[in-house]
Amino acid sequence: MTPAPLPLTRDIVLIGGGHAHALVLRAWGMNPLPGARLTLINPGPTAPYTGMLPGFIAGHYKRDELEIDLVRLARFAGARFIAGRAEAIDRSAKTITVSGRGAVAYDVASIDIGIHSALHKLPGFDDHAIPAKPLGRFATAWADHLAALARAPDLADKGLVVIGAGVAGVELAMAMAHGAKTAAGRTVPVTLIDSSSALQGLGAGAARAVRQRLHTMGITLREHTDIAAVTRRGVTLADGALVPAGLIVGAAGAVPYGWLGDTGLALHDGFVRVDATLRSISDPSIFAVGDCAHMDHAPRPKAGVFAVRQAPVLTANLRAALGAGAMKHYRPQRDYLKLISLGKKAAVADKFGLRFEGAWLWAWKNHIDRKFMARLANLPPMSAPKLPRHMADGVRDALGDKPMCGGCGSKLGRGTLIGVLNGGSMDDAAVLGDGAIKQVLSTDHLRAFVDDPFTMARIAANHALGDVFAMGARPQTGLATVILPPASQQIHRRMMTDIMQGARQVFADAGAQIVGGHTLVGDSLSIGFAVTGTTEQPIRLSGAQSGDALVLTKPLGTGVIMAADMALAARGAWVTAALTAMQQSQGRAAQILRRAHGMTDVTGFGLAGHVMGLCEEAGLAATLHLDAIPLLDGAEILAKAGQRSSLFDQNAELAQQMTLPNDPRADLLFDPQTAGGLLAAVAPETAAELCGALCDAGYIAAQIGVLTDGAPHITVV
Length: 717
Known about the structure:
Blueprint: E1 10-15, H1 19-30, E2 36-42, E3 46-48, H2 53-58, E4 67-69, H3 70-77, E5 80-83, E6 86-90, E7 95-98, E8 102-105, E9 108-111, E10 116-117, H4 125-128, E11 130-131, H5 135-151, E12 160-163, H6 167-184, E13 190-193, H7 204-216, E14 220-222, E15 227-230, E16 234-237, E17 242-244, E18 247-250, E19 254-255, E20 267-268, E21 271-274, E22 286-288, E23 293-295, H8 304-321, E24 338-342, E25 344-351, E26 354-358, H9 359-377, H10 395-399, H11 414-421, E27 430-432, E28 438-447, H12 453-470, E29 474-484, H13 489-509, E30 513-521, E31 526-535, E32 549-552, H14 558-566, H15 572-582, H16 587-592, E33 598-601, H17 606-618, E34 621-624, H18 635-640, H19 648-652, E35 658-659, E36 678-682, H20 687-696, E37 702-708, E38 714-716
Parallel strand pairs: 1-2, 1-9, 2-5, 9-22, 11-18, 12-13, 12-18, 13-14, 21-23, 29-30, 34-38, 35-38
Antiparallel strand pairs: 3-4, 6-7, 7-8, 10-19, 15-16, 16-17, 20-21, 24-25, 25-26, 27-28, 28-31, 29-31, 32-36, 32-37, 33-36, 34-37
Helix pairs in contact: 1-3, 1-8, 5-6, 12-13, 14-15
């Protein structure tokens, strides 16, 4: 007998995707703690690696080379990823408030959110400058400025200004000078401004070498200089002089995030005070690491090297906080190696007051940085479950060569269902009643493919309501059916709170309500809804007419992206974009398409299967234009790489009724979609106007083909 999964009993929540937390995720994936549910909260799917930022600014690295893929790491760790910004901690309720989401419960939490610039207090800074931290926003602004320099080299005359001449600011200025010169084809004036002395904290020898490099590169260093304001023309100094600039970057005044001050945690200048175990001195259930923490036992300057070395201790102590092992102490080194990039592929090293300089140091730094990033990118493949020695014939074939997908990828194929159901309408919902107002009724259920019950509930609710919208009906009620994994009562309560909160939002936005449901415990999470709606005139598949244009309201690719996510082969940005698409309601699209002759929602059978259903019900053929079909970011790349949903092969059996080009994009026609778009057959003269209205309403919509006379058949051109 296969052993039942162990119940979940405790929640660990990581707030922020800093370097230490990224390493915790990797370590957790290698050795998870049974019974603990791990969660990462971060505003975006990636986090930039600070060590490679100057190299990116100088043009030595591409943007994606300095991005840590947090979604992929979370998948490897078996953790749920919540895309959102933490705003508060209620320590009495043990909840974390996330923007746009609400409360996330924890038993143990860790904070690794870094720091940000305090220069917003400088007049005009927020309107006319960009802080160096958070790094992601600055990296985007710099890439845009380089593109502008390449288009209009005269922009170089306006120059660049960096406010703050500490080690980070100086390194940034040299990198910007090199990168801007490469983009513009000529030297771009760069000015460094600091109200105090430059390069504080650096040894005398290394400081002399860096100052010499600044002089050689023509970078103007203005120390002990106060700034009055930042304007669109540049930086106005306290004496009234103007330093012109096409881009102004703030690298001074890094401070902790203000919301930490409202947590009631003990702070030092706004930073969370922690002891040698990295635990808050005022709350044993909260840890803090990286730049947002202040180590009472061993104060140190803000530097990424400490966060990296804190990670193993934090990992052990998070486990110990839940009863697995003893607490460990973190003892930071007295001094650390500082490697300062010099714009070109050269660097200066400083440790214990000793100075080294040269291209070989940059090569060494590059090796260290790439090794760190490879550690977070080259994740060991997940091993398949061990099979018993003796099995009945066909077990291996039935299992297949990949894990079973969730969502619509875990459903039965079109051929199997048609063979079993043997007749009946292929409409998305049953129609009840003969009066002026008719009721439509449908049900749908999804096996979870993300570990966040809130997100999964929103997707499942939108997926189920798609059947009502496809019939041209107004949603009315929903009954929830939820299967929860084994867990303690507390975890089950938290899961159900997340599920109902997410689902109720979706139903309320659709003008409907959840009126009841049923729960039970199984091996894994799955969520479904029975839904009803009302309409005066249901839109049936059989109403489609020859000559109708086919309009699709969402891009394809959710199946292949989520299958690749399970295999650690998808970028986190692709995954989060796919999840966002699945949470987009089809309510407004259905209103725009209310005069469609025939309509369905594209789900498990893939676009090809649902087009064929339309053709069979209406007795028509179809022509699809492959170039016109919108695709989610990453879908085409993954399809070309051979990634497939576990339902793909069954859906692809339909190819025998199709004429297909030799193009890997054609495989996406068989990709099972979850909470996919509406597919509508509309009068051809209205198609362009309808597509315009859909796009104006926020949908990635397109006219993808046409219905024609003939036996049911799909021609793809």
